[in-house]
Write a structure and sequence with these properties.
single chain, 482 residues, alpha+beta, 2 domains, 7-stranded antiparallel sheet, 5-stranded mixed sheet
Amino acid sequence: MSNYILTLKLKTEKYHEDILNKRLEIGRHIYNSCLGELLKRYKNLKQSKVYQTILKMEKGKDRNKKFNELNKEYGLTEYSLHAYVKPMQKHFKKNIDSMTSQKIATRCFNAFQKLMLHQANKVNFKRYGEMNSVEGKANRTGIRFIENQLVWNKLNVPVVIGKNDMYAHIALQDGIKYCRIIRKLIRGRYAFYIQLIMEGIPPKKYNIATGEVRHMRNEGSIGIDIGTQTIAISSEKEVKLLELAPEVNDIEKEKRILSRKLDRQRKSSNPHKYNEDGTFKKRSKERWIWSKNYTKTKNQLNELQRKVAAKRKQSHEQLANYILTLGDNVKVEQMNYKGLQAKAKETTINEKTGKFNKKKRFGKSLANKAPSMFLFILNNKLKFHDKELNKIDTISFKASQYNHFTNGYVKKTLSERWNEFECGKIQRDLYSAFLIMNSKSDLKSADRKLCSENWSMFKQLHDIEIERIKNSKSKLISSMGI
């Protein structure tokens, strides 16, 4: 069954905030205690002879079964961690209920499991102030939402629901699965929210002035070619080449200035932590000194990063809503973002300057624009209508190389942003999106017949979009080639 989240602000007094802060800090201690226990058990498991024997076995079902049995024997399971946290919770029962403590243990186990499955190199303990959320298991016990109030272990906090907030009023008619408390640092002060995980699909939003449904969903095929900073969209109605989260660029310069200022203040207050050449002393155990100005700058940077994250998410939500107004059969060429984040392995030399080329690739662009996050949001919105993203087979499809006129493949360098055809020049990303839109049902190749049928309309919409971009006053990304 589909779920969605309704976030509401808590109307907290000073004593409410003190209690919530205390409980989040207790939750942090429980989390760290669980993680320490898991790491200890995992160390004992790896030192056992049985583990070394199973490790040498051929990969397969039998090997996995042996590992699962060994995990149970050494208590490396979610339910064994629930048993470990039970006596700890009784000590904190005035603040943390049993369901919440189990959810903290589950959260810890999920993080640790990535280490056990070799999906992460390490798992970190939470520092002071880093535990910013806790959640329950059901709305029947523990953290609950009752009569427009947060109710949790004799703590009752009113929830802010606007009279004109029709979305919230309609959403609250659905069933509540469980609740989550969120703490956010906004303008240097903590604000608290309750997130209600609701059963069903999100209610439709209406235009207050006209009464019409906003972001009306339509049927039809859509092709998406997404890059590190841009997205090309091809549909039967519109063709677009857009920058992902363009609002983020406005804040990036200020973010760089604050980061450099923070670095200078840290070095100025802590000369004992740095060598004469300015490099950090790795084995220094002396305490850090944080000045008031450093703390002020750090809070400014945190606030800026919060704004960036909020604007990026809002921009992705708006773009996803726009795409779904064009059609519901969304096909996408997904990239290997982890591979793009990594540095280049080979060392190369620039032929013109004779200097070594930088090994850095697209890490910064991916962090700022978060294309993977956009696809996740779009896929979630499709799931509410029992659909999902159709991911093409990039190995066999090769949208950037294919020519539907000649039915051949031509390799291109990253700098080649245009395709030359008899009818004129076509932007490379938009053409890839067009081919993806007209792919066969198996998503392994383009359907030449569909391409031919839809070509004239695509060419017309393509030329309109290129003209719009040329006349745009905003700064263009170089990868667009315009």
